[in-house]
Amino acid sequence: MAFEEMVEMVSILRREDYDGKKGPYTRPNMRKDKIMASVVTALEAKFGTKQAKDQLKKRWSDLKSWEPERYW
Question: Which domain of life is it from (predicted)?
Answer without folding.
Answer: Eukaryota
